[in-house]
Amino acid sequence: MPAADLASLKIHDTARPRGSAGKFWGFFAAGLGVLLLVAGAVFALKNRAPVVEAAVARPAGDPGQQTLLNASGYVTPRRRATVAAKITGRVTGVFFDEGNHAKEGQLLATLDDSDVRRALESAVADRDSSRAAVQDYEVQLRYAEIQLHRAQELKAANVQSQDQLDNARTQADSLQAKIALAKQQINAAESRIAVAQQAVDNCTIRAPFSGIIVSKDAQVGEMVSPISAGGGFTRTGIATEVDVNEAYIARVQSGQRVTSTLDAYPDWQIPSHVRTVIPTADRQKATVKVRISFDKLDPRILPDMGVKVAFMAEEEAKKKGAQEKDKGPKPTAIIPKTAVRTDSGKSYVFLLRDTKIERRGVTLGNDRGSDVEIMAGVNSGDSLVAHGPENLQDGQTVRINQ
Description:
This protein is of the alpha+beta class. Helix content is 31%, strand content 33%. It folds into 4 domains: 51-61 and 327-400, conserved putative lor/sdh protein from methanococcus maripaludis s2 fold (Beta Barrel), CATH 2.40.420.20; 67-78 and 237-312, Elongation Factor Tu (Ef-tu), domain 3 (Beta Barrel), CATH 2.40.30.170; 80-112 and 203-233, CATH 2.40.50.100; 114-201. It has 4 helices and 23 strands.
């Protein structure tokens, strides 16, 4: 028998079928790729530059121009009226639109006056009828007086009886009474005419004072009543109403200079003054309302706009503050309080150097509302972080929120 050739039984590697071990290594490679992607994403997020908001240090300026305190509020008209009809009626005409300037007495709207005009015409007819009756009675009275005079002469001559004289006198007296009654009817008719005319006038709606129309609440064909507005008005004398913490209300006086800044126009400083301090406090908010008047009106100032006001120091306080500043060091800049951070009782800020931040220790001065004086560490014009994460580090790269 020939010898067995075991070499012929060898199986090449390329002919081996892939079993469970091959599948395992395929899944392992795919999982490793996903893991590397997740790790890369986490690393990228971890090293992403934090977003901060920047602020520029402002000049400290003249100590006499310092702000005593800041407050916020809203614009409110000094006088506001919702113009409505005095009677219930159907609108037949509307002669205004929102934003129009209206003068006192200007025609705004009309109501259907057909019914009240009929009542007016009826009252006028009654008056004219009574006047005609008076004229007729006066003619009859003149004749009755002639008859009475003739009866008196005939009675004196004993030609006519006393009964005929009495009839003539009664006729004359009756006509005088009728004339008096007709005149009273004329007066009554005049009163009804006045009432009817007032009803007709009530169908015409006019502006009660000069102002700006801010709302158009009625259209032609609609029914309106005394509780249905025909249009809203805002007088051009606009003021600002703000809440001041009662702990600082002693710093506010009537006539005090104020700088107002509308939220809609943050770069526009409006000269204003304190009009009045309302003598009542809100015990829940511990505030007192203060009304501010703008020195000069502007079409951009609209009711209910948000506004921030800065109460300026008075002349005496300015002089005193200037004297105190002359005796000691002067502040180098003014920055928002939000830019100041504290570490172990020491204050510092982060200055912006292009895209990196630099930690800088500062010496604080007096508060100026939402701002604070910087005595050392920051100069006017320096850019610094006003808002940002709490974990910022010196030299860290940041992104500025535009």
